[in-house]
Task: structure prediction
Amino acid sequence: MKVGVLGSGDVAKTLAGGFIKHGHQVKLGTRSPAKLVQWASTDRSVALGTFAEAAQFGELVVVAVKGTAAREALELAGKSNVAGKTIVDATNPIADAPPVNGVLKFFTNLDESLMERLQNAFPEAHFVKAFSSVGNACMVNPQFQGGKPTMFICGNSESAKAAVRGVLDQFGWETADMGKAEAARAIEPLCMLWCIPGFLRNDWVHAFKLLA
Ligand SMILES: NC(=O)c1ccc[n+]([C@@H]2O[C@H](COP(=O)([O-])OP(=O)(O)OC[C@H]3O[C@@H](n4cnc5c(N)ncnc54)[C@H](OP(=O)(O)O)[C@@H]3O)[C@@H](O)[C@H]2O)c1
Result:
């Protein structure tokens, strides 16, 4: 599969590496491709481009940019380049304010998630929330004593969610489908919970598992 990854931070680089590991072709998009030339050249076979070039390249597109800039990055990627495509939304709506006792601040509220805002702004794209509730170090084939962790996903398109479930299978995750886009109101705050042990005890290696 051809995958366009929007972003140049740890999440974008980690997921790009995961897609390469599993045999996909990747173009990573950023406003400044030059800053990643050395990283991309070290045996990763990741192509670099602008947000628009990466989005155009991808049959599947990953959004892995700062939450406050997600809409702007997608505007730069271009509406026509994301229309009709599955968009893996790894972003979180983290506000530009420090955590309080280890609890992050969000710029959204419990009645409106970032993914819903993006879905409304780009109605022809098929957003699927995924990879937002775990740190980048544990995103690709994580090994936990407790077995496979669970990735909570949601989105309005069943076929897009099936495509993302396929990616999660490859990346070593169980998938828990929480339904339509509104479920991102519950999934995005899992990031706050996931980060608390990190901020309080410097423990950043864990993931959620749904038991039944
Ligand atoms: N860090 C984690 O472990 C983790 C885990 C789960 C989810 N997340 C979420 O994943 C996303 C990426 O996190 P990250 O830590 O890898 O990176 P980040 O530092 O949150 O974001 C860096 C990216 O944001 C883009 N960006 C910043 N301002 C922009 C603007 N004004 N216009 C367009 N693009 C802009 C940058 O673009 P350029 O490339 O052009 O500089 C860069 O690609 C975030 O939403 C985060 O909450 C992070």
